[in-house]
Each structure stands twice: as structure tokens, then as C-alpha cells.
Amino acid sequence: MRSNAANYDLIAPPSLEAVLAVLASEPGSYTVLAGGTEIMVALGAGRLSARRLISIQHLRELRFLSASDDTLILGAGTTFTDIRRDAILASEFPLLVQAASWTGSIANQNRGTLGGNIVNGSPAADSPPALLAYEAELTLLSSRGTRVVPYTDFHLGYKRTILAPDELLYSIALKRSYQGYKTYSRKVGTRKAQAISKVAIAALARVEEGRITDVRIGAASLQDRPARMTATEQAVLGQAITADTMQRAREAVLAESHPIDDIRSTARYRGQVAANLVEEFLRSLQTDPR
Questions:
Q1: How far is CA 53 from CA 34, 64, 224, in A?
Q2: What is the pLDDT of residues 114-149, one digit of tens each?
Q3: For the structural domain made of 5-55, what CATH number should be given?
Q4: Is the pTM of this model over 0.70?
Q5: How many CB atoms lie within 10 A of CB 269?
Q6: Domain 183-287 classified CATH 2.60.40.10?
């Protein structure tokens, strides 16, 4: 049954300051609407429980990309189309650009925002694995002030985050320090795009004299939240890329993955495919000339 829009309240304060003031005055009373690509699906399906919505989609203060010598900062309102079109991101952060191209249709990419994708907290979301691999930092904003947190600390469980009821995600910072790294991304789903991932991996590594000297692996749909595969990273760090290393990596992936059975796939399938993807990533480090 579709929802009746008359049962919902929507406000759109004219500035970021005004939005924060509303959130501070009634903490937890409003659900924030950014691009609305998730909320409108829930509304149309009759399963949107939040009755009071506050729109931030129109706030230019949240839609920006700013580059310094060592950092690129994306406003939380940056759309996936903005990400796909940015030259610095394309050159230095290809994992994020690839993830943006996977996120829904072109219409969804025009409207959906990076901040919304993060805060929505889906363990199958497209952008979090890349952000985990790049060790993004988040700036959270409220009328009380700001705080900066590592993205790895943001998700607490299924659709649970550290975001306080009066806070907004303001920006996402990426260090411009990945020159010489090799990258890998793969999404396994019913289709390459416009489908929720069964499993997705975003990874990068630096290889020196045949050994892995740095590695970061982000994953979707393997835990109850977007996950950094730290045990798998440790299994290969400092190692030469051999058959033994790949086998240890496969075992580590299976040990630290806790996927679920659902209508899209089974837990067993997800674990085995994730192990295959990590092995494929390691093999690419032997041959990828980048």
C-alpha cells in the first residue's frame, strides 16, 4: 500500500544554520532528506515510518569539492554525478568514481548524495568500500560545534551510526597520498548497475620489491555494516604475492566475513565470492602496470 503524503510533514529551512537550529530544538524529531532516493522509495512502498522530514537537498553550503595540496574535501551534498565528473577524483580516487557510476540510474546519480549514501548506513551501499579503502575522515556538524571522526568509526551496526540526533554530516575528507598505489574494485550483483550488490570490494595496495607494503580493503554486504577487512589486510601485509599468501587471504576473508542469507544471495555464496575477489585483487598486483 502506498503512503499518503498528507500524513507527513516536510520542511526546508533556507540555510544550514537554520537546519541545525531546528535539529537542536527538537533532537530526533526530524529525519533528514538529502537526495531522497532512499526515502522516496520507502514512501512509495508505504514503509516510511518517519513522519517529519527536513530537507537539506537545496543547501549549496553542503554541495562542494575543495582541493588543497594534500587533501580533497567533498561536501556531504555532493552528488554522484558531481563525483563522476570531477577531474581530481578521476585521476586520484578512481575507486570512488567507479562506485559513483554503480549507484542507481543516471537520474539517481544526479540527485543522490555522497552524504546520504553514508548516513543511510546500508551494508550494501556502493560508496563506503571505497571510502574505507581511502581512509576518509568525516566532519560532523551541529549547533554545538564540529567534530572530525575517521570513517572507520562511523558505523556501529545495521543502519546505526555515531551521528547524534542534532548532527549532520558536513563533509568527507580524502588525503591525496595514493600516488603509486594499485587499485581494484568489483561489484557482484544481478546487473553491473541499478542493482544492490551481493558483494562488493574496493581495494588498494602499494607493492615494493615484490612485497605488499601497504594495503586497504573495503567491502559491502559482508557484515552488518560497511566493513574494512583488517584481518585480511594483516594476512597479506609485508608478504610476497604467492599462492600461499593468496590462500591465507582467502582464509582470512572467510573468517572475518559475517554475511546474511536474503532474497539476493546466500551467506555461503557471499563469503566464497568475496574470497575470490580478494584473490583476484592480489593477482592483479602481479600484473597491473599502474
A1: 10, 23, 26
A2: 999 999 999 999 999 999 999 999 999 999 999 999
A3: 3.30.43
A4: yes
A5: 15
A6: no
